[in-house]
Amino acid sequence: MSNEYAKERNLLKFSTFACFCFAALGIGLGIWAGSMVIVFDGAYSLVSLLLSLMALVVTIYISKPASKNKTSGKAVSAQKAAVIESLVVLIKGLAVAIVCVVSFASALDALFTGGRDVNAGFALVFGVVNVAGCLATYLAIKKHSSEGASTILKAESSQWLMDTVISAAVLVGFLVAWGLMMTGYGEYAVYADPMMVILASAYFATVPVKMIKDSVKRLMALAEQREDAQHHGVLA
């Protein structure tokens, strides 16, 4: 078990570092280029960074042996570890759901208020790099995760898959905008990006919903197990 937790810690450290890089790149380049779309993408990576840090801290806490647990002097029980993991996934699901709603609302507002101006050339370069980086991170985590990976690591993988799809949708929006500009329909290019973000947000809303649903079901099952154990203990 300790080797498995050590492997998951390394994957979460890698994920955290990748989140930091994408957040810095997105926010920095977005402000420099004056692109709110790219800034928003960086802001999502910043949320991912905070969630990855939380997951890493929890994994380290769960895997601590009794001799190193200064709080209680006891190793974390399997049931307590399962509860903590489920709570982390629940928080991740809620945070990702909020990002989906905010991105959908922001794109919808842009769609009905004149669209978004896009520096197509710069945006395309950023989009390609961003999609390639997110996809590479997702595949790396997926490849090195064991079949019995914790729910925390599975949620981390889903988070990167969602980031990849959203980034790909934004890239497609940039491509459509560039195509419209090249074919003499530049006045419609401003609507390409918000439309793609709306479609991606709506399509991928199922991911956080599933994360939240599974976490709640697992927490309820663990609560029932604890009640049964206490009931049998009283009867004994």
TrEMBL record:
Membrane topology: Multi-pass membrane protein
Main subcellular location: membrane
Boundaries of every Cation efflux protein transmembrane domain copy: 13-220
Keywords for the protein's UniProt record, in alphabetical order: Membrane, Transmembrane, Transmembrane helix, Transport
Pfam families, per the entry: Cation_efflux
Statement: the UniProt record of this protein carries the keyword Membrane: yes
Subcellular location per the Swiss-Prot or TrEMBL entry: Membrane
Membrane among keywords: yes
Source organism, top-level taxon: Bacteria
Transmembrane segments: 12-37, 43-62, 83-108, 120-141, 161-182, 188-209
Name of the molecule in the record: Cation transporter
Organism whose genome encodes this protein: Enterovibrio norvegicus
